[in-house]
């Protein structure tokens, strides 16, 4: 089966730039009317990771959301906007990111993900607690942000669907699968298979490179992507950002599981040619781990030396406790007026760095990892 991914340019977030770009982007698919029928309730799922301003490139930009809401309305659909942020409460995140203002101005319905449904898994994991609105909407439009990710290397179409897991349950999944990138990638794919989006539109106008998804640097790319297969969309997004396949944990897991979209040879692009849309390679997160593929007994013995681990920056830390409360294994405490880490319990998911509002958590590399980096 072949998969289409469209690419278009949009140099900024002005409405008279974004709307025409979206029209061109969706033209190869027949426009929004091909995905939305009159009277259907259409859930728009942006990235609402944390309460950060739009210019920080942490969340899906509100202007892109505004224009997609308009397209859904023109097709006769009823737009809903929902997500479950990692920390901070949905309303605070929506206010700070500018998303709530757009929802109120457009009259869309704001749907916090606070009610769950137990869904039987279709693979390795037996069941998931998924937000009820995510499952019950007539249509689902995925609106991810193109960003680097300290654990998965890249977060885009597939990873954005982790937002269907509600609130504190995310920490539980990090604890269950987060110590192994391959296992975590498989979990993300199994969530995707529970409810496949009808359409994915990627906000790559202002992307993020470096230590994403919450502490990286904004990167102006001026791009929008769209497709019906999130795995294929991610493959093209990574190609445009210069991220090598060997670092794409989700796509590698998709290949092993035989989930369509991982094979570049099956993807046809539309709109701006790939070679013209490519940007200089993204600055990637630090190499945080070189232990995967080792036998378990070696992993356990060498883990401290072959991985990076979070550390506090006392000058920037306000001791707000967000990292402590968000840490899946409870490896962070506050002692004697500073953060203390239990590195034997730490699973290196970097949720603490991802969610810290002050950017007060750094990275300390193991001795063997430092030596290996000098040789690559």
From TrEMBL:
Pfam families with a match to the protein in the record: DUF362, Fer4
GO molecular function: 4 iron, 4 sulfur cluster binding; metal ion binding
InterPro entries listed in its UniProt record: 4Fe4S_Fe-S-bd (IPR017896), 4Fe4S_Fe_S_CS (IPR017900), DUF362 (IPR007160), PSI_iron-sulfur_center (IPR050157)
All copies of domain 4Fe-4S ferredoxin-type, residue ranges: 308-337, 338-366
Signal sequence interval, chain numbering: none
SUPFAM superfamilies reported for this sequence: 4Fe-4S ferredoxins
PANTHER family the record matches: 4FE-4S FERREDOXIN-TYPE DOMAIN-CONTAINING PROTEIN (PTHR24960:SF76), PHOTOSYSTEM I IRON-SULFUR CENTER-RELATED (PTHR24960)
Name of the protein in its database record: DUF362 iron-sulfur cluster-binding domain protein
Lineage: Bacteria, Pseudomonadati, Thermodesulfobacteriota, Desulfuromonadia, Geobacterales
């Amino acid at each position: 089966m072949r998969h289409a991914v469209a690419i278009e340019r949009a140099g900024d977030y002005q409405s008279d730039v974004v709307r025409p770009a979206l029209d061109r982007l969706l033209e190869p698919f027949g426009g929004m009317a091909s995905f939305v029928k009159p009277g259907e309730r259409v859930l728009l799922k942006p990235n609402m990771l944390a309460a950060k301003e739009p210019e920080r490139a942490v969340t899906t930009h509100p202007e892109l959301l505004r224009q997609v809401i308009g397209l859904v309305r023109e097709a006769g659909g009823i737009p809903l906007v929902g997500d479950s942020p990692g920390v901070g409460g949905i309303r605070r995140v929506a206010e700070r990111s500018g998303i709530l203002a757009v929802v109120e101005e457009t009259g869309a319905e704001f749907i916090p993900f606070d009610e769950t449904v137990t869904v039987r898994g279709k693979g390795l994991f037996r069941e998931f607690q998924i937000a009820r609105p995510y499952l019950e909407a007539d249509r689902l439009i995925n609106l991810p942000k193109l960003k680097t990710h300290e654990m998965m290397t890249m977060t885009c179409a597939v990873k954005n669907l982790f937002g269907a897991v509600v609130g504190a349950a995310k920490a539980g999944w990090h604890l269950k699968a987060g110590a192994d990138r391959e296992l975590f990638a498989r979990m993300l794919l199994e969530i995707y298979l529970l409810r496949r989006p009808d359409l994915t539109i990627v906000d790559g106008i202002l992307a993020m490179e470096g230590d994403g998804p919450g502490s990286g640097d904004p990167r102006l790319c001026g791009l929008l992507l769209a497709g019906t297969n999130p795995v294929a969309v991610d493959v093209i997004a990574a190609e445009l950002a210069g991220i090598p396949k060997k670092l794409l944990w989700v796509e590698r897991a998709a290949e092993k599981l035989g989930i369509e979209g991982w094979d570049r040879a099956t993807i046809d692009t539309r709109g701006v040619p790939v070679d013209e849309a490519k940007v200089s390679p993204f600055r990637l997160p630090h190499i945080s781990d070189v232990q995967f593929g080792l036998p378990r007994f070696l992993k356990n013995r060498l883990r401290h030396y072959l991985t990076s681990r979070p550390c506090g920056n006392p000058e920037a830390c306000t001791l707000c406790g967000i990292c402590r409360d968000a840490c899946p294994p409870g490896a962070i405490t506050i002692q004697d007026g500073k953060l203390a880490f239990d590195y034997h319990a730490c699973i290196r998911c970097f949720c603490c760095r991802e969610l810290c509002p002050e950017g007060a958590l750094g990275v300390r590399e193991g001795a063997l990892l430092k030596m290996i980096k000098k040789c690559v």
